[in-house]
Every structure is written in C-alpha cells, then in structure tokens.
Amino acid sequence: MTAKKKLSYKASGVDRDTENETKEGMARALETSDQRVLNKIGAFASLFDGSFPEYKHPVLVLKTEEPGTKQLLAFKYDSVETICADLVNHLVNDAIVMGARPLSIQDCIICGKVEKPVVLRIVNAFAEAAKQNECTLTGGETSWQPGTIAEGVYVLTASIVGVVEKENIIDGSKIREGDIVLALPSSGVHTNGISLVRKIMKESPDIEKEVINGKPFMQAVLTPHRAYYKALKGLFEKKGLAGLAHITGGGMQENLNRILPGGTSAEIDLSKVQILPIFKTLKNFGQLDDADMLRTFNMGVGMIAVVQKDFADEAKAHVAKEGIETYEIGTIIRGDKTVRFTGSLRWA
C-alpha cells in the first residue's frame, strides 16, 4: 500500500508565516495620529470613535467600490500605487457628492498568493491615498485564495465611511430651473471604460506607442482618478451649491440625471466640453462613435456641480484655488429628469 503524502495548510498553498510577516509590515502602514482610531491592526475589527460634537445630527455616508478592469493593466505594468489611488479617490468622490467629510477607508485584497512586497506596496498606497483625502485607512482584509485565483493576480476593493450634517446633505433636491451646470475636469479616463480601452489595445497595439501630453500612452491611461474633496469641501454649506454628480460609468447623461428633482432636466452643450487628448487618441484608434463614447467615458468631465446662477462665479473662483479650472457646460430647464445634449463634441 502506497503511503499517503503528509499534507499541511502550507502545502495547500497558504503560508501562515508569510501572512504574519506581511501583517507586521501592514502595521507600520496603518500607524496614524488620528485620535478617532481606537485600536491597532491585529484586532478582530476596527474601532472608530463615533462622537461628532461639531454636528447637530450627523449622518453616516457609506460606499463600497472596486476599480474594475483597470487593475489588470495596473498590475501588468507595475503601477500598484496608481490603482490604489484610483480606488480611494473614486470612493471619496462618491461620498462627497452628498456633502460628506471622508473619515475611514477599509480595503480588501484578494489574491492567489500573498507576495509580501506587493501587498505592502498596496497597503502603503491605500494609506497614502487616504491621507491625501484627509481620512484614514483603518484596516481591511487580505484574502489568500489558492486554486480560486491565480498566483500573481490581485483583486482590490474598498469601502468608505463619511459623515455629513443632516440639514446640509447635498442630494440635488435644491436644484431649480435656471441653475448653471459646471464641469470640473477629469485627469483622464479615471476608472471607467477600461474594458473598451483594453479592447482597442488588443485590436490596435500600435496605440501603446502614442505619446499624450508628454506621457507614454499607458502612463496616461493609468493616471489616477482625480479627487475633488479639497477643491469642493469649502462649498458644501453654501446655499448656492445645489447638487454634485460624480461622472463615472454611463457618462454625463446617466450620472447627472441621478440627482435631478422631478420637473427638471439638464441641457448640456457638447460643444463646450473640453475633451482631453486621451479620448481623441482612443477615438482615432478605435473608430468610436461619439454616442458610445459619451455613455462609456467621462470625456474630460470628472465631476459636475449644479449651482445657482448668481453663485457660479464664486464657485468657479473657489475651485480654481485648488488648481481646477471649472467651466460652464449647461443649464437646468423644465423637464422629466433627463439630461439632454445640444451641439456636438469638438474634436479639432
């Protein structure tokens, strides 16, 4: 009779020693001076002080997100730090459109094998991105799943908690006919439409030889999602700010409509949209239709602010202090909660 091979957890693909060594490195990344964080890595869950004395009626804002197939490109081209910034910035933007102050980020790293240097880069990048948005990486989960996910593959996701004063929630309900629609420029493709980008790369590999604004094509694609919190936070309690929409999958039409109250529509003049060079390159190599691009990409508009007409100049000046040049692209009209396009995109 053949002797059975002695098995172990390590032989099945999970090395507890490597996990523990990696956690020691994570502890350094999670060090914070944030007094609201009440415990450290190693606890079963994170403790965060929920006392908000500066708020009369604090409301928590919660969101979970993942960076889509952009993470495939990021890991292929060794751009770990940018994809982590993408994910955190996307989360923050989704929270702040409610008028929220970001508080805590929790990450989740799923992989076929824990490679200590890679995982520590990820955690450090998440921590840094959180700090840049004035919040804290408070913990998370690293899940080692051999046989489920191939070695070298990482799937990232994360969650955010923010807080907003109930009476200052920004939900679009104050939007009225005659309000102005302002565009805040994106930094590039952000985290949407990457499946189409990858398809274009497969069909037209020469696109990778392109240089966009002095950057190689892939570096331009992997430019992190722009975060708008620092530029917008000073406007959150201003009566002139009526609504905010983060422009992600579905483009302007399928995101701005989410905040329009009944009886209104938004009319957007496409000729005013300042298209970024990356989208011109994608259009040329992919022979893309304008209509499809408008439903897939942000086209250079990463965030939309709807403001009262007499507040538009003040809003633009405030955002400009953070280096973001905001511009008008439309108005609010009577309608049925839709976003209507006029004019045409200017590609020249």
Please identify the oligomeric state. Answer: single chain
Overall form: globular
CATH architecture assignment name of the largest domain: Alpha-Beta Complex
Strand content: 15-25%
Class computed from helices, strands and strand pairing: alpha+beta
Q: State the order of secondary-structure elements, H for helix, E for strand.
A: HEHHEHEEEHEEHHEHEHHEHEE
Number of strands: 12
Range of helix content = 25-40%
Low-confidence region ranges? none
CATH topology of the largest domain: Phosphoribosyl-aminoimidazole Synthetase, Chain A, domain 2
Cα end-to-end separation:
78 Å
Per-chain topology:
Elements: H1 16-29, E1 58-65, H2 70-76, H3 80-96, E2 101-111, H4 116-132, E3 136-144, E4 154-165, E5 180-185, H5 194-203, E6 211-212, E7 215-216, H6 217-221, H7 229-232, E8 241-246, H8 253-256, E9 264-269, H9 277-286, H10 290-296, E10 301-307, H11 312-320, E11 327-334, E12 339-342
Parallel strand pairs: 2-3, 9-12
Antiparallel strand pairs: 1-4, 2-4, 5-10, 5-11, 6-7, 8-10, 9-11
Helix pairs in contact: 1-4, 3-4
